[in-house]
Design goal:
Radius of gyration: 17 Å
Number of helices: 2
Structural class: alpha+beta
Largest sheet: 3 strands, antiparallel
C-alpha cells in the first residue's frame, strides 16, 4: 500500500476576465523585488514573493474612469 498524499486543489484561475487587461510581472535583480504593472491603468505593486505578485495580478481591477482618461490622453481605446 502506498502512502499517496494528493496535492491541495489549486485556486481556479479566471478564464474570462471582463476587459482582459495586460499585466506584466518582472523581477528586479538590483532591488530583489517583483514588479507587477497594469498596462491599462498604470497601477503597479512591488513584492518580495512571486506568489504575492501573482495574487495581485489575479485580483487587480482597473479604475474605469482612470483607464478612460489615460486612454484619451494616450490616444488609445479604453476597454
Amino acid at each position: 500500500m502506498n502512502n499517496v498524499t494528493p496535492f491541495p486543489p489549486r485556486r481556479p484561475r479566471p478564464t474570462a476576465r471582463p476587459g482582459l487587461v495586460p499585466l506584466s510581472v518582472e523581477w528586479n535583480e538590483g532591488r530583489g523585488l517583483y514588479l507587477v504593472a497594469c498596462d491599462r491603468c498604470c497601477e503597479a505593486a512591488t513584492t518580495y514573493r512571486l506568489e504575492d505578485a501573482d495574487e495581485w495580478a489575479e485580483t487587480h481591477r482597473c479604475d474605469p474612469e482612470l483607464a478612460a482618461l489615460l486612454a484619451t490622453v494616450l490616444d488609445q481605446v479604453a476597454a
